[in-house]
Specification:
about 120 residues, mainly alpha, two-stranded antiparallel sheet, 7 helices, about 65% helix, about 5% strand, elongated
């Protein structure tokens, strides 16, 4: 009986996580992703500040992001890069004479063709 209990508590030699810990980690991940999505443009945003604001430790954030196979810092960087790419696309559209993304729908070209490098823009 003790062997059975031991095998349940220690899978592969490591203590099993409780369901509460997994649920808490999932909730923290959800809050952290929303926090980064909202605040990624803040140049002073750090993982340490985010941990304080979310009332968690940096290590808890690291563990929460393991389900995404990414670190909180990498997620923040990806979000910032995606935002920068979008800003560059918008700038390129303005340089080419399109004021708003909706202007693309009034052309005979696909949005993909608008954003591909050409010699004219």
């Amino acid at each position: 009986m003790y062997d059975l209990l031991g095998s349940m508590l220690f899978a592969n030699g490591t203590p099993a996580r409780s369901i509460d810990a997994d649920v808490g980690s999932a909730r923290l991940l959800e809050r952290a992703v929303a926090y980064i999505d909202t605040n990624h443009t803040d140049s002073e945003l750090t993982i340490q500040r985010m941990a304080v604001d979310l009332k968690a430790s940096s290590r808890q954030l690291q563990r929460a992001f393991t389900s995404l196979d990414i670190t909180p810092t990498e997620y923040l960087l990806q979000k910032r890069l995606a935002s920068a790419c979008e800003a560059l696309k918008q700038q390129r559209m303005r340089r080419c004479g399109a004021g708003l993304p909706s202007d693309v729908s009034r052309t005979d070209s696909s949005p993909r063709a608008i954003f591909l490098p050409t010699e004219s823009c």
